Hints:
Oligomer: single chain
Number of helices: 20
Order of helices and strands: HHHHHHHHHHHHHHHHHHHH
Amino acid sequence: xxxxxxxxxxxxxxxxxxxxxxxxxxxxxxxxxxxxxxxxxxxxxxxxxxxxxxxxxxxxxxxxxxxxxxxxxxxxxxxxxxxxxxxxxxxxxxxxxxxxxxxxxxxxxxxxxxxxxxxxxxxxxxxxxxxxxxxxxxxxxxxxxxxxxxxxxxxxxxxxxxxxxxxxxxxxxxxxxxxxxxxxxxxxxxxxxxxxxxxxxxxxxxxxxxxxxxxxxxxxxxxxxxxxxxxxxxxxxxxxxxxxxxxxxxxxxxxxxxxxxxxxxxxxxxxxxxxxxxxxxxxxxxxxxxxxxxxxxxxxxxxxxxxxxxxxxxxxxxxxxxxxxxxxxxxxxxxxxxxxxxxxxxxxxxxxxxxxxxxxxxxxxxxxxxxxxxxxxxxxxxxxxxxxxxxxxxxxxxxxxxxxxxxxxxxxxxxxxxxxxxxxxxxxxxxxxxxxxxxxxxxxxxxxxxxxxxxxxxxxxxxxxxxxxxxxxxxxxxxxxxxxxxxxxxxxxxxxxxxxxxxxx
Length: 505
């Protein structure tokens, strides 16, 4: 596998999905392992630290990297604008992409330094952002923010270049280093939050270094830096993506402070974080799909072609992600009891609520990236903050009344508000064809059978319930393939990929 390989949408989706399977397994395995190693209170502090860096990643992966990805995709010929076959115009696009690359580096790393400095000053002065996190951990987190700023720009350039192998391997390498260091330092050395902070810093540095190595032949070198226009184009993307990142982290970050008067402790935040780790796992699969099709939505010559590219990713939501989420909706205890220690018994109900919000987050993420790709960043920037505002209102109303469960419902309010606002705008510009009635009936039958089996798992004793969950998912998969819900061409792609893995093994 070459880090310079440029793939199409289908191949890119396979590579990114393979990477996301590995990273999801390692990431959530690490979360579960830390839940076993640390008491709920300390796990709550770790959860807030991880969510802080997740929010920083969302902010820093926002405007500049997405603007860069689009510029690089145009220069690579992904956007067949009039005259792109003209060598002089192609050279102009390449020069524009290089100047945008330089502007993205300066702007994003500068933003990272600003965010890291503000965080360090506030945290060291008051301790209000991450209660109980010490000086060294704070400085390591600040350093990780700067490294994430650099890495986000490099990943944006790789995405625009369609180098999905490099993106996937960078993410796998990052989580691999993080898992080894975090579990080693916490489990063997026993340094808790500090060990996780070290792991986060080192893994961010390794990922940025790998991304640079994969992109070294496309490095722009010295030259002019795109001016105000490039920065201005990044602003609406930054607003939209930052607010989107807030939707996925505000519940964890604010639960303790808003719910303190209602008896919400750091231990409760730890339980909520454990539920969120499992309930939000499908989102990262959906995000990988939308990342893979982004260059092709941006490069589509017509709106109809762009919509077809989006459907390559969006169709997997009902076909694969909804059935997986149905497990946590119907019988969350079957999964949580199998992977979490006894102190997290109350996480089952929270996982059910968070799953509702995650479904909205997946669709909103795909719509957001599709609109970015087609140049509607201003529309996204005008709508997603409204959803975040509704989420904040829900947090301040529901958390004092219902504690952690209120945080889960506020998360659902924000994500589904974003889906509605972005969906209405998208549908006003696209007239998608209707789903065939026969296809809808076949899907409802398959999902209905799965739900019935999961209902039996919900009342079955351990470990029979887990067996029924696996049987239900297997039955659904067979029905989806046999009734052509999953097209044969996609089945063939999976079979070829498995055959390659088998031959290598």
